[in-house]
Amino acid sequence: MFIQIIQGRCRDAEQVHRLTDEWRETMGPRAEGWLGGTYGITDDGEFVAVVRFESREAAARNSTRPEQGEWFDRMRQCFDGDVVFHDCDDAVMFLDGGSDDAGFVQVVQGRVSDPTAFRRFMEQPMDVLHEQRPEIIGGTIAMEPDGWFTETVAFRSEDEARAGEVKQMPEDARREWEEQMAAMTDLRYLDLHSPWFASSMRSGMGTGMGSGTGTAP
Hints:
single chain; 217 residues; alpha+beta; Alpha-Beta Plaits; 5-stranded antiparallel sheet; 7 helices; globular
């Protein structure tokens, strides 16, 4: 699986939302390998999109479509400054991966000192997390070779997410998680209070957008 993260300072939230809906309805069905997307805008106006494709090659083929370029030209006008893209071939899902019914999504970005160890940790069974934090539906982890990562966590609701933050985990699980947190730096937490989603017929879960040339929303 290939994940691309798109971020930028948004100055027209309504138009961004309309354009992502337009892409899903008119171009998404013909986008080879597109699986889905999770989108949102933070309180301070930062747009975040997390896009899943079956492969980097499928995403690249989509970016060459003329209609894709025209669409992205319109999307770019909704931003102040540059739109930043992160392409991640190293991507995994955890728990149920996510859901188009999620009421709140938190995006966590930062850097890990040992990407291989972090991936192993995220791929292990998460029965304890599921039992202790049932409000967490699931999410994705996308990493670049230098350890920079973006994690999306889908929650049933923001109220449940905030209540769950203060719960005490069992000692072993807490210690293991604290060890992983100690290996992270430059952490940022981006709260998407009103996320929206798009899903392909090929995907059972909505989390996806495009390439440096505007691959897809």
